[in-house]
Design brief:
The protein has 223 residues and is mainly α. 70% of the residues lie in helices and 0% in strands. The chain is globular.
């Protein structure tokens, strides 16, 4: 009963925020940015190579939200709607980069191949208090997983990030991506497998280069 009351309260709060946004309230827009800017930036940064590009796209997302809020009629939650815009803008930016920037990469640019992670992506990418050694290991692992995610096809990466990192439910992901539930589950299964394979291949390469035998045990628990 308390969960239902909480959900009703959240919907009422969201409706009030939407009403204020539609009225042009700068305070409401500032609140929206404070609430969503960091998670939206993180979502975009997992798809783009350049942090400055991720920041620019994040800014563009909120410009689109501000300009389009009058057309938001509550068919989905406000959060779902904003994430949908963010993924659309990210996809546009990636297509632009593939057309115009790929050939400009320097020969010695970092190669984005990666390895392990432990129980789940959300845990691996979390930044909690830890010892300096644990922080160093976690940072290295996080960088490899982040880079591996960028190597996945867009359709797979989007579902994996939304589910494993952002914590959306299957139905919410279906709304964000405008696909059916079966497609979400299929892409998630394939995306997990593709990520696991990418991490495994990179670990094999690293083991060969260092003369080490066996895969990192972190791969045994990869998603």
């Amino acid at each position: 009963m308390s969960d239902l009351a909480g959900a009703i309260g959240l919907r009422a709060e969201e409706q009030e925020l939407v009403r204020e946004l539609k009225s042009g309230s700068e305070e409401a827009f500032a609140l929206l940015i404070a609430q969503y800017s960091q998670p939206i930036y993180s979502l975009i940064a997992r798809s783009l190579r350049d942090p400055s590009e991720a920041a620019d796209v994040t800014q563009e997302v909120f410009v689109k939200v501000f300009r389009s809020i009058s057309g938001f009629h509550g068919e989905a939650s406000l959060r779902t709607w904003i994430y949908r815009i963010a993924l659309h803008e990210t996809s546009n930016q990636r297509r632009w980069w593939n057309r115009h920037k790929r050939q400009e990469l320097a020969i010695d640019a970092p190669v984005e191949n990666d390895e392990g992670e432990s129980t789940c992506l959300a845990e691996m990418l979390a930044t909690e208090d830890a010892s300096p050694f644990e922080q160093a290991m976690r940072t290295e692992t996080r960088e490899r997983v982040e880079a591996a995610l960028r190597l996945l096809p867009d359709a797979y990466r989007e579902v994996v990030v939304l589910r494993e990192i952002e914590g959306f439910g299957y139905e919410e992901i279906a709304e964000i991506l405008n696909v059916n539930l079966g497609t979400v589950k299929s892409r998630l299964t394939r995306g997990r497998a593709a990520l696991r394979e990418c991490l495994k291949n990179n670990e094999l390469e690293r083991a060969t280069q260092t003369g080490s035998t066996g895969l990192s045990r972190t791969l045994e628990a990869v998603i």
